[in-house]
Structure formats: C-alpha cells, structure tokens
Amino acid sequence: MAAIPASTAQGYKGKLGKGLDIPAMWISSQSKHAYEATLFLNWMTEPDGWFATQYLARGFGFLSFADNNRYITDPSQKMLIQLAPQMQAVSPNTVLKCPDLLKSQAMIAVDNFHPNWDWEVVSDYFLNGGDIEKIAKEVDAKQNEIFLKALEDEKASGLNVSAECYAAPDWDMLHDYDYSVYFK
Fold it and tell me: pLDDT averaged over the chain?
C-alpha cells in the first residue's frame, strides 16, 4: 500500500484520507424496526465495543470512530498508524457538492466492467514486464469512457451528476481541504 504522491519543495509526499464518510447505513422515516436498527447501529459504532475491537484485532482495516492504535495487532497496519500523523489530511467530500452521487452507479459500472483490472495489470507487469505506461493509459482510457457514458446516462435519467462532481481541482492533498466552500 502506498500513499497518493504529491509534489512538494522537498520532494514527494503522500496522504492518507481523513474525510467525511459516505453513510453506508442509515435509518429512514419508513423503517419498520427503527428501534432495533438504532440498537444495531449503536453496536456497530461503539468505539470500545465488540464489533470495533474484533474488527481491528482481526486486521480488517481501520475505523474512524475507534482507537485503532489500541486494538490493531497487525504489524503492517501498526506501521501505517505511525505514518498517519505526518500524512493525514482532510479530503473533500464530493457528496456535499453533489448529493445525487449517493444514487450514482458510474463508479460501479467501471468496477463491474473488469473487476480488479488495475491489480491484474500491475501484477502482470511485475511478473512479465512490458510497457506499463502504455497499458495503464489503455486501461485508464477505457475506464474513463465507461465512467463518462454512465454519468451521461444517469444525467439523462434525471440525476444531477457529472464528472465535475468528483473533482476538487483546488485541493493540493498536503493540506486540509477547506469545507467552507460547500456552505457559502
């Protein structure tokens, strides 16, 4: 795993994202079992609860609401935690700019076209060599074609989505993003 590179006067640095998460679960006004759903969500997000401690101890990843350093045991993940203070920056949350992104399937269309394509290309390059730049540009062009076509179809169906919804051109990846631009 490597952080996204960004140019600085001292060379290249990277960052680990620390943005606002897109909610994976929520309780709607039509929920038939809102109380039980609330109990479940509380169980899932208790910082020192069973789910958080087991999730972290078993090496499944990081949780923004829990003490990762306390419960993670995997040495590779421990190394990333040590890097995080120097590399972490608040990244832009595109959903604030375009709420219809929550309904968009454009990125899913790209992933479904050829799942894990980027990993296959990298693995093949490491095993067999070749012109990685040429292959990467071909993959990138095809993925962009699928992505833009899906966005075009979604826009035609009434969703307010575009490639600009995903962009944050004024963010430099080394400094916290200024979220106030979304609230002006």
Answer: 82
Closest CA to 1 of 85, 124, 84: 84
pLDDT average, residue stretch 155-176: 84
When pLDDT is averaged across residues 108-135 and rounded to a whole number, the result is 90
Angstrom distance (rounded) from CA 95 to CA 99: 5
In sequence order, what are the residues at sequence separation of 6 or more whose Cβ sits closer than 8 angstroms to the Cβ of residue 146? 109, 110, 113
Task: Give one DSSP letter per residue of 70-84, joined into a string.
Answer: HH---HHHHHHHHHH
Phi, psi of 59 (to 5 degrees): 75, 25
Taking phi over 0 as left and psi of -120 to 50 as alpha, with beta for the rest, 104 belongs to beta
Q: Mapped to the 3 state alphabet, what secondary structure does 85-152 carry? A: HHHEECCCCHHHHCHHHHCCCHHHHHHHHCCCHHHHHHHHHHHHCCCHHHHHHHHHHHHHHHHHHHHH
**Identity of residue 164:** E
